[in-house]
Amino acid sequence: MSQSDRHGLVIIGAGQGGLSAAIHARLLGWEVTVIEASEQAGGKAASIAIDGYRLDPGPSIIILPDIYRDVFRRAGRDPEDYVKFDRLDPVTRVFFERLHEPIDLPASADDAVEALSKHARSDGPALQRLLSTLDRVAPAIERTVLARPIEKWWHLADPRLARAAMAFDPQLTYKELVDNMFSSPLLRSFFYGFPSYSGQTYDSKAAGALLIPYFMFRHGVWFPEGGVGAIPRAFVRLARELGVKFLFKTRAVGLRTEGTRVAAVETDDGEIPASAVVSNLDRVTVGAMFGRPLPKRTSFSYLTFHWGVRDTLEGLAHHTLLVPEGFEKGFEDLYRRRQVPVGNEIVYLNDTSASGGAPVGKTNLFAVLTVPAGKTLYSDRSVEESRQSVLAHLSRRGWKFDPLDGDFERVQTPVTFAESHGNHEGSLYGPDETERLWGLLPLTNRDPEFKNLFYCGGSVQPGAGLPMVTLSGQFAAKLLGPPR
Ligand SMILES: Cc1cc2nc3c(=O)[nH]c(=O)nc-3n(C[C@H](O)[C@H](O)[C@H](O)COP(=O)(O)OP(=O)(O)OC[C@H]3O[C@@H](n4cnc5c(N)ncnc54)[C@H](O)[C@@H]3O)c2cc1C
Q: Are residues 204 and 248 in the same domain?
């Protein structure tokens, strides 16, 4: 290693993004040290054991498993030796309050279209047309925006992207696109939520968010054997085999700079000299360390309730959606008023009891609400209102239990994500879209000021979600390049 790279690479944070960056940088020849504030790797995707339950308190909808498998292949390994994925069928169960029976969306896209068409007859052909259009769009996105960081506007001047962009009217917002395609409340309720997964609203020009349901329908929804935490565990194993060093319970508190370079990471346990740094810590949070202005508005987050119920709750699928009457107002509160919707919010439920997540005869129930980021919105009283609202939604479907009489109750709010994971105001997607790259893309993986500082994770390209942050680690390593 030359003089300039003698200290090696320091990665701040062992979330899925940081783990991916560590592996990709190591494959380029870097000496890599990962410093992690908590005692385990995985960040939001790390699992937690409580009284015989295995909790996945973060991501639960696992799509695009080839993105993880490719990392193992790149390291010359067989991914099956590290983590195995089972395809879920149904993809999800939808309890639409206006219908008596739930609707199961089967794993096959054609069957899912048929299942939805039964209740929204006129929208079946529209859904089929949308999937066919996205069959053409998806490969173009995979080979461009998901293949490399976009740093200059002319990176977007790619004929493949231009063709993909023409598939949808660029003047229309996401909501207008969805409303023009689908007339039934059922299909609208299913589609309205997806822009929030990329930190956008349905009033954004967010046609790209249509790819999330597309990937679910066309490529399936998966569950890793051993729970979601098996993914970061597999990445840690590979990283260690490749020679990556981990320092747990070590918190980065600052970066020492010399001119236009970062010279060292300051931690609560002393300084670690670095030739280069990749931060898995939110780019906005790192910016604040340098005194950069904070975004005026943040994007979205989650409010979650996790219950160890001492009973089996019949009728839940692995993934279940509860869509209440008046869900339209819930979305208006979320997207337009930036309020926590209460009473008319869609509740996503995850029950992993049948896949080893709970002791026999008990239920591991995880309820997730999409909410605005912003710590001040979450007082004890407002969280209790949401808790009561979720319990009321469950009770209306016949799932009645006393959470205080369960094996555990665990609540996460945007305050949790701010304090435990370093996300600015608890936002999982970085700044609001108005402050993104050209109001369109997540921020880049390169620091604007310091030449040897790069970013991975949900606050930067290509975006949030486990598969995307895995790609973000690859992007950061690509920009870093091999040691000189
Ligand atoms: C409730 C919930 C549900 C979700 N559902 C899904 C889903 O269904 N599907 C999906 O794909 N995605 C989902 N996501 C999003 C997904 O979990 C995230 O996008 C992804 O896990 C973020 O990974 P990351 O690498 O950016 O960061 P993180 O997982 O936040 O990791 C950051 C790491 O940095 C460490 N750290 C923080 N500060 C410091 C410091 N100062 N020094 C050292 N270390 C530090 C943290 O301890 C943590 O380990 C969900 C997220 C949540 C919270």
A: no
Whose CA is closest to atom 17 on ligand 1?
59
pLDDT at 121: 87
Phi/psi at 214 (5° precision): -60, -50
- What CATH number is associated with residue 32? 3.50.50.60
Whole-number pLDDT of residue 1: 44
Question: Hey, whose CA ends up nearest to atom 19 of ligand 1?
Answer: 465
pLDDT mean by block of 10 residues, the chain; 484 residues: 73 98 98 98 97 97 98 98 97 92 92 89 91 94 93 85 87 96 94 93 93 95 97 98 98 97 96 98 94 90 98 96 96 97 98 96 98 95 98 96 96 97 92 78 94 96 96 98 94
410 C-beta closer than 6 A to ligand 1? no
Interval between CA 398 and ligand 1 midpoint (Å): 33
Residue 237 confidence (pLDDT): 98
> Alpha-carbon distance 124 to 113, whole Å?
6
Total structural domains within the chain: 2
Q: Kindly state whether residue 81 falls inside one of the protein's structural domains.
A: no
* Signed CA dihedral, 459, 461, 465, 471: sign only: negative
Residue by residue, DSSP assigns 329-393 as HHHIIIIIS-----SS--EEEEE-GGGTTS-TT-EEEEEEEEEE--GGG--HHHHHHHHHHHHHH
What domain range includes position 33? 3-46+64-76+226-294+433-480
Contacts of 39 (CB under 8 A, 6+ apart): 248, 249
**65-74 and 230-242 are packed helices; what angle lies between their axes, rounded to 10 degrees?**
10
Distance CA 331, CA 316 (A): 24
Domain edge (last residue) among 213, 234, 260: 213
Task: Rounding to the nearest 10 degrees, give the CA dihedral for residues 318, 65, 372, 37.
Answer: 110
Q: Identify which of 421, 423, 424, 427 to mutate to test ligand 1's pocket (most ligand atoms within 8 A of the CB).
A: 421
**20 pocket-lining for ligand 1 (C-beta < 6 Å):** no
pLDDT value of position 4: 62
CA of 342 to the centre of ligand 1 (A): 25
User: Of 213, 240, 263, at which residue does a domain stop?
Assistant: 213
The upper half-sphere exposure of residue 241, i.e. CA atoms within 13 Å in the direction of its Cβ, equals 11
Does the CB atom of residue 45 touch ligand 1 within 6 A? yes
Atom 7 of ligand 1, residue of closest alpha carbon: 59
Gap from CA of 428 to ligand 1 centroid (Å)? 8
